[in-house]
Design brief:
Distance between the termini: 30 Å
Order of helices and strands: HHHHHHHHHH
Radius of gyration: 20 Å
Structural class: mainly alpha
Mean pLDDT: 85
Largest sheet: none
Shape: elongated
Helix content: over 70%
Low-confidence stretches: none
Number of strands: 0
Length: 251
């Protein structure tokens, strides 16, 4: 299981290696990731600045408590708000960036598929592509929202809440990101969202190694920008590995 987890992370790193093969195309495709990342980072700063006021409003029952105890409680709630918001942003970052920059990322993905060769791809109509993309995005957004609320509630548990929420959040985020980052190669192979999830679940440790690695990378604003197109190439490699298709770039 550990080897499979490491294999998944290595697959993600191989996506970064694609920068050396096509640096101009990868750099251009990083532009949408930069725009989305900047907006989300600014939004997170605003949430952080407002979190204590929101925590105070949510804990009005503590107004009669000792000032220090009330401050600690509100600090915990404020931290949970920021943590939950940050988690939700990270797991939705890939989906939003893919939606905004689809023409850029589709070109990167097609270049990678061409270089790898040996795969039969299906050309979806524009309507089918939009219909499937919106439907999948809504389903994943619902799961992301429920998970973010769960992470927020877990983080409120005294002492152990924050680390437990961090680990659980990373595992859930890893699963979601692996699904999101394999959408282009999955759709091109005629796989529905359910079929793609089942394919990934067949190698759960590898899926988590890939997805958790992407989650940790997306936590770093600057690295997330250059990491988005690399993660999409990594997702293509992952799908190819799981389907037994050629997954080695020619030298």
């Amino acid at each position: 299981m550990f080897q499979e987890f490491v294999h998944g992370f290595t697959t993600l790193l191989r996506g970064f290696g694609y920068w050396s093969r096509n640096p101009r195309r990868m750099a251009i495709s990083a532009i949408p990731a930069l725009i989305v990342g900047a907006i989300m980072f600014g939004l997170l700063i605003w949430i952080g600045a407002s979190s204590y006021d929101w925590a105070t409003a949510l804990t009005g029952f503590a107004s009669g408590w000792t000032a220090s105890v009330a401050a600690v409680l509100r600090g915990v709630v404020a931290g949970a708000i920021v943590g939950g918001a940050g988690f939700l942003m990270v797991i939705s970052y890939a989906a939003i960036t893919l939606l905004v920059g689809q023409p850029f990322f589709e070109k990167v993905w097609r270049d990678a598929e061409r270089d790898l060769g040996g795969a039969a791809l299906t050309e979806l109509s524009l309507w089918e592509s939009v219909r499937r993309g919106v439907g999948d995005a809504l389903r994943l957004a619902g799961v992301a929202l429920v998970t973010a609320i769960g992470v927020f509630l877990v983080s409120l548990i005294p002492l152990v809440g924050a680390p437990v929420a961090g680990v659980v959040g990373a595992l859930f985020a890893g699963r979601m990101l692996s699904v999101e980052l394999t959408s282009l190669p999955g759709d091109a192979r005629g796989l529905t969202l359910d079929q793609r999830q089942a394919l990934l679940a067949g190698r759960r440790a590898r899926q988590l190694g890939f997805g958790v690695g992407a989650y940790l990378i997306f936590l770093i604003p600057g690295v997330a920008v250059i990491g988005t197109p690399a993660a999409i190439v990594g997702g293509t490699l992952l799908i190819r590995e799981l389907r037994g298709e050629p997954h080695a770039f020619p030298r």
